[in-house]
Amino acid sequence: FLEKLETPSTSYSVNQPNSSESEQSLSTRHFNVTEPVVAKRICFYKSGDPQFNGIKMVINNRSYKTFDALLDSLSKRVPLPFGVRNISTPKGRHCITNLEDLEDGKSYICSHQRKMKPINLERASKKPLPWQISRPISARRRAVQLARENEVGFGHRERKITTPKKILVFKNGDVRLRRTIILGKRNTQTFEAFLDYMSELMQYPVLKLYTTDGRKVPNLQALILCSGAVVAAGREPFKPSNYDSLGYSRPAKLLGIANRVYPKANAKSETRKWKVSVLTSDMPSAETSSKVYITLYGDHRNSGPIFLDGEEGKLFQRGNEDIFTVHTGNIGNLYKIRVGHTNSGNSPAWHCEELLNLFSGEQFSFPAHRWLAWDQANGETSMELPVFCQGQPVLPVTVYEVHVTTGELWNAGTEADVYISIYGEKGDTGSRQLLRSQKPKKFLKGQTDMFSVEAVHLGHLYKIVIGHNGLGSGNGWYLDKVVIKDPITDLDYTFLCHRWLDSGQDDGNIARELTWAAEKWKFQKGNTLQFYNRLTGGFICLSPDSKVDALGDKKNKYGLFDVIVKRGNICIFSSHQIPHLALALVNGYATGKTCCELRVHLQPNGSAILESARNPGHTVTFNLQGKVADDTTGYAGLSREFVVHVKGVFHHGAIILLNTNLCQALSLRPDGSCSGTGQQQQESYWKVHKIGSGVCMFESVRNPRMYLKIKDGQCNGTGTGDEYCHFKIEKNLEAGSVSLESVRNKGMYVGLLPDGQTKPVINIGENNIFFYPQIIKFGREKPMGTSAAPNQEKKEEMRNPQGGECPPPSADEWKVSMMTGNAGTQVNVTLWIYGDRGAFGPITLGKDNRKQLFLPRQEDEFQVANEDYSQSEWNLQSVTLQHLMSKKTLNFPANTWLSKNSVDRDFVFELPVVEAGKPIYPIVLYHVYVYTGDLEQADTDSAVYLCIYGKRGDSGLRLLRKSGIPVKFRRGKVNAFEVEAVSLGKLQKVLLRCEANSKSQYWYCDKVIVREAENNLEYVFNCKRWLPFMSQGVIHSEIDLYPQEGDWKITVVTGDFETAGTTATVSLYAYGEKKASGPIILGSGKHQLFNPNSEDTFKINLRDLGQLYKIRIGHDNTGNDPSWYLEEVRLERLVPLSQEEICLPIECWLAEDKGEGDTWRELAIRNPTKELLPLLVYEIHVYTGAKLGAEADFNVYINLIGTRGDAGKRKLHRSKNNNVKFQHGQMDIFFIKAVSLGDLEKVLISHDGAAPGNGWFLDKIVIKYKEGKEAQEVVFPCNRWLDEYQDDGKTQRELTAKSKYFVTDFFFCGNNTVLFTA
User: PLAT domain: from which residue to which, for each copy (predicted)?
Assistant: First the structure.
């Protein structure tokens, strides 16, 4: 037996705040309308703490303008772990949400959570004694206090425990942090008291308890009935893990665990003493002469082998019981042991009967009843035994099949003794000798030997260590691979080696650590990845505002992540689009952060789990809706596995493997046939030739000019590059695989027969058409361009090796010939080609051999791409393009210098097509004038680029520079440049880019003027904007500017007091008689716009709207201070120029917490021929249904639609008749101001609640309004759920008007109240 001799107590004296999980529904409280009080004297107490003396404060409009400001002030004075989040009445029955709800002379309770803990105000208001102020309240005292409060009516009694019970408590998501406690009368007075007790013990705010399988423990009765282990959580949702009460293994030697720091209680708890009792069988010859050892495995670490030493010759004798004292560190909770011997002495065989232990007063038994001997039973000299709980092993014992394949090299076999150690997520097997193979002789050249290894189940395997002892003749060994079959999960794990274990070969090592790395290549440095979630059907996306979801499609630019390898399986996944942000885990939730290390756990199904390297147990997890999982997400709705896709697999020139399983790939055999059983080596390498979007050819690397093809019912590698070799790539996002469909024979795929041979097949859903691509070498990295390489053969290049003609060129292929003048160059040369149907480029003219290009008086012809050199001047004589099919030749005479350094030379040059000695379009010199604004800090040293767009194409992006150096754009100055290009025709727009590295380098451009002197044309492109600028949370470094035709100028005037500005993004909607336009993003207050006492001017395009009749302006309520006081909006038509300016005074707050509580405002525009439309107040009555769970606790939005347009999507923010809106069977009233919508026809109603249980049952909506003398009432029935998990799963509904009533009397009676009388 094992007996723990000392059990040092582990105690904490940390005073944790009170916490609770159970929620109470807040009943509606109606406050009487009274005269406003100039100042209110109020006392605030701390939730659940009668020792807190209270904070007395004076509340008036000057001291606190908003309720949030009061909460911020209280957070600094009332000690709560997360600040003051809620204020309630003394008994916690009513929640306070507005300053107006506070009553003079009253007392209130502050809490950091929704659930308030009532206190006895009579006792709390008394000044405490000095020792009561400084003395921390213990869990026992708090339990007694709460019990007494329950007796006087502040709570209710729960079921009491009568018999003490031991229970193990895990920290949510971190199985290493746990505490063993005894449930007794002292710590279970109430459920609330127990949660507080756990908060102190765990040093972590415990708000909820779960069972180990994710079910919530709501009360004491459920806690008492638990099976022996619970999970303690805070606000975060349940995080599934291996919460085994006696069986989770993460020994210190496991991958990624060695350097972790485990929590300590005190110094004494690190040393443990155990009493071990070993019973040797009474069978003949059961005794042993070997040294016996034992290894104890706990959920913190393992003890390592401990030899059971004693008087020699008297230990482990037949029928004897031997008792030992064993010293270990703090291994945590024991879940398995390994016992074995060294197989030494005259009679090493041993028959072990049983091992017993007493652990913390509870006895466990390890029945053995088996031989440990190389010549008995299975030949093992060690065995593993799991801990039993309630008569069942906490982990099963399994027999792994270990298949060891020796390579086929000369002298690959060995006669040495081979040992293996298998590692999984639940421990390791220890070193085991591979003794008995099913073959007569082990480890022969090309042979696969099968061995059995018995062990307590290890969970998911991730590595092995295999080696030999170096003894025997020819002990060197070439190991090909090891395959381990797990009979419990029915999974095969392949560990590839392909290396020598020989002191005289390779690196001289005779032992190797092999990882199960079928997907590991994807996480190499520099790869760009996408993470696909099978549950949500979308990719992980990291937005510029740091929000993360799993809803992106495969083309979403925010779904790309660059791999930065830190160490081992720990990586940083940096956003490809926003390099300063990386995928991160903060407090257990996925978000964007500057830098965060994530540990990659590859799963047997090919997917990956991303775990925080700093906080083990925290993983990137989403709910069914693709949002980051939160408290409302149930265990069944969590998804944390992702299929990893690598970008660039099928880029032109890439070399790839088309894997068919973990260790085999599609290969080309010498006879031209193909097989899916090839080794993942050079014989299976294929070179990708990209033909078009999603269409590729695959050329064998070992046998050049032999292509994969489907023709005449055969699938092989004898293709010559014609259309029979073209395959459409179909990607299977769910599995990370691809299928190859023949372009010529549609519906026919490259398939595999049972023997691995390839054959054209039809897709009937079988897996025999799936291939798993793996990149060996990346191809062309620039997806928007192409590349060319020099041809080294003239006539011969058009013939294949068999002497037949090569396939004819396609209709889009050209041969490029370039003649260099008297001076050559070594720089990269890039080519664009323009035609009447579009442009093609950039085409990089490089090389894939060492031949020097662009030498003086040399002509070069091209096909592939290459390297970068430093020489920077080049004399270009001419360029010739020849169409390969029609043989048509186009000549581009140049005779020009391209240089970065010369004042009068450029390094980008455009050439027109020359026919009959004349260019079909002339080269035009465009004069560009860039005006920098006269604002403070408007100048910049940053590089500025310009691209001019016309009817015939564009000039390409040109750096605005002089003498080879970018210029400085000075405040209030004009910079002049020249851009030479083939005539672009009528100019349509310019693109302006400023690459600023910091805010101090931002640039304010006033306008750009482009003049075409020969035709006496001038184009004005107004900008009047900072570059870069932010729009909808995204920073843009470039902007398109359009000529002034049809443009309007809008001036937005912000109020002149200190807090009038906003940090939100402002948008505009414009409505005309023909159509509407919007949203038009004006900009963000985060970028020096919409400051107090400022006018911001914008150019907007309102073409084809017809006569304007209204606008709507507002913001998205983002940023630290989104509230905005808007003074007025002015509109001026520029083309045709109008002398009249439309002034629209507003003079109100656009804010949720100020004014009318709306962030949008509609304004009517006067039509000279029609009457001005009135601004109406729409009174909206929302009826929540009376069904169970009908209430809503999330944001609800509405859009009113009538015959004159819509009111826009408005948030129903503040109920006029209820403090808590959308409650069961309740009617809430809201007001929306909008320009007259005419006759109301329908409404759009929606909400943003996404998790299970966040549904809302809407009965109906009634809208009342008055236009002219006639008041109207329109009813929109619904009687349906808005719930992703009920009804049809929709959270937005379009409701149609069913009935309309006319009201004779309609008038306002103050305080936003409207009365109707029939």
Answer: 272-386, 398-515, 812-912, 924-1041, 1046-1164, 1176-1296
